[in-house]
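Translate structure to sequence.
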C-alpha cells in the first residue's frame, strides 16, 4: 500500500518530469507584511509571483506546503477535515493553460496513482453575472470522458476579498461502497482531492474584476485525503502518518470515543507543528489560535477524567510529527511549553469555578455578565459555557 511519502514523491516527480522546478515550501507562517495569520493554501507563498513578479526558478513550479485552516475547526473529527494538513501543488506562471493542467491532473490520478476514471467526477464554474462559464475546462473534461457538474459559488476561488481569483475546477473521487452515483454537490461520498484554479483575474475593492495580463494556473491537492483514498481508508485519520497517534492515545487516555480520539490527534499534532514553526501561546493572533487548540485538547481530555495530563504524551509522538514536517525544534522544549500552557489553563479554570460559584452567576447569564467575566476575570464566553456545563448548569 502506498505511503504518504511515496505519494508526495510520485506527485513531485511527475511534475518535475514535465519541466516543473521544486519550490522550497514550508512554514505555516506567511512572510512579513502578509495580513493573514497562517498559510492556508499551497499557493500562498507564491502570491507575488502569481501576481506577475518573475520567479527565480522559472514559470513551472511544483511543491509541498503545510497549511492551516481554522474555518473547519468544528468539522475536525469527521472523515476528511484536519486543522493542519499538507497540500501538493503545481503552478504555471503564465506558462501553459488550464486545459493542460487538467489533462496532466487526470493522467497523474489515473496512470500514476491508479484511480479508475469511473470513480472520478469533476465540477466546473458555470458562470455568474460577472464572468462567463468556464467552457474550456468543461470541454477538456468532456474530451477526457469525465462527468462534469457546473456550479457557481463552489467553483470560484479567491485568495481573499480582493486580489487573485478565478474559476476553478475540482476533481472528486468516489469513496462509497456502491457503484458511483449522484454528483459532488448532492452526495458527500464524492470527496474533493484536487483543485485547479484558472487564476485569471484580480478583484478590486469595489468588487470589479480585472483580467490578468498574464493568467496563471494554481493547483492544490489535499495530501492526506488522497492518501486515504489510495489506501482505501475510511478517514484521513487512518493513514500512515496518523497511525502512531491512533495507537498511542487510547493506551494513555482510556477510554476515548472515536471523535475525541480524532480531535485530540488533530489538535495535538497541529499544536506541535505550530509550535515547531516558532509560535508560542498568547492572548491574540497566531498564539491565540495555538492556545485555542491546546485548550480544546484539554477540555476534551478533562471532560472524562480531570486527572489526565499532557505530561503523559510520549516524546516519540512529538518527535514523529516534527520529523514528518521537517522541523528541527527540540521536542523536550516543546513539551515544556505544552505543560506550561496546561498549568495556566488549569489555574484559569480553577479561578473561573470560584467566580462562577458566586450567587450573582447562578442563574442564566446575560450579555453584561459575559462581558464582565471576560473583562474583569479573563474568562472568555466559551470557557464560561464549558464551566457551567461541567457544573451541570445550562
Ligand atoms: N488555491 C487553491 C486551493 O487552495 C488551489 O491550490 O484550493
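Result:
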Amino acid at each position: 500500500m502506498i505511503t504518504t511519502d511515496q505519494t508526495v514523491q510520485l506527485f513531485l516527480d511527475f511534475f518535475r518530469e514535465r519541466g516543473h522546478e521544486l519550490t522550497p515550501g514550508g512554514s505555516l507562517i506567511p512572510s512579513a507584511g502578509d495580513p493573514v495569520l497562517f498559510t492556508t493554501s499551497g499557493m500562498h507563498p507564491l502570491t507575488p509571483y502569481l501576481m506577475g513578479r518573475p520567479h527565480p526558478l522559472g514559470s513551472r513550479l511544483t511543491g509541498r506546503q503545510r497549511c492551516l485552516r481554522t474555518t473547519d475547526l468544528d468539522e475536525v473529527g469527521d472523515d476528511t477535515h484536519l486543522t493542519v494538513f499538507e497540500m501538493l501543488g503545481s503552478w504555471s506562471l503564465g506558462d501553459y493553460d488550464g486545459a493542460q493542467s487538467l489533462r496532466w491532473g487526470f493522467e497523474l490520478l489515473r496512470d500514476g496513482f491508479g484511480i479508475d476514471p469511473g470513480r472520478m467526477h469533476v465540477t466546473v464554474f458555470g458562470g455568474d453575472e460577472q464572468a462567463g462559464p468556464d467552457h474550456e475546462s468543461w470541454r477538456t473534461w468532456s474530451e477526457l470522458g469525465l462527468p462534469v457538474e457546473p456550479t457557481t459559488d463552489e467553483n470560484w476561488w479567491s485568495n481573499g476579498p480582493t486580489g487573485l481569483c478565478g474559476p476553478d475546477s475540482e476533481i472528486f473521487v468516489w469513496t462509497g461502497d456502491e457503484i458511483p452515483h449522484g454528483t459532488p454537490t448532492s452526495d458527500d461520498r464524492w470527496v474533493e482531492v484536487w483543485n485547479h484554479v484558472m487564476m485569471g483575474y484580480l478583484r478590486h475593492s469595489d468588487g470589479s474584476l480585472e483580467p490578468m495580463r498574464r493568467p496563471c494556473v494554481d493547483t492544490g491537492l489535499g495530501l492526506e485525503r488522497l492518501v486515504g483514498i489510495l489506501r482505501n481508508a475510511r478517514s484521513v485519520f487512518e493513514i500512515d502518518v496518523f497511525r502512531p497517534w491512533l495507537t498511542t492515545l487510547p493506551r494513555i487516555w482510556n477510554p476515548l470515543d472515536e471523535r475525541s480520539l480524532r480531535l485530540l490527534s488533530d489538535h495535538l499534532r497541529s499544536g506541535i507543528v505550530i509550535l515547531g514553526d516558532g509560535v508560542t501561546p498568547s492572548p491574540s493572533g497566531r498564539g491565540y489560535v495555538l492556545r485555542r487548540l491546546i485548550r480544546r485538547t484539554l477540555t476534551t481530555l478533562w471532560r472524562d477524567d480531570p486527572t489526565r495530563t499532557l505530561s503523559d504524551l510520549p516524546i516519540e509522538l512529538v518527535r514523529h510529527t516534527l520529523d514528518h514536517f521537517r522541523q528541527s525544534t527540540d521536542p523536550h522544549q516543546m513539551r515544556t511549553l505544552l505543560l506550561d500552557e496546561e498549568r495556566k489553563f488549569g489555574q484559569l479554570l480553577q479561578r473561573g469555578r470560584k467566580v462562577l460559584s458566586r450567587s450573582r452567576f447562578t442563574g442564566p447569564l446575560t450579555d453584561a455578565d459575559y462581558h464582565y467575566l471576560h473583562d474583569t476575570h479573563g474568562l472568555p464566553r466559551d470557557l464560561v459555557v464549558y464551566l457551567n456545563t461541567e457544573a451541570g448548569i445550562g
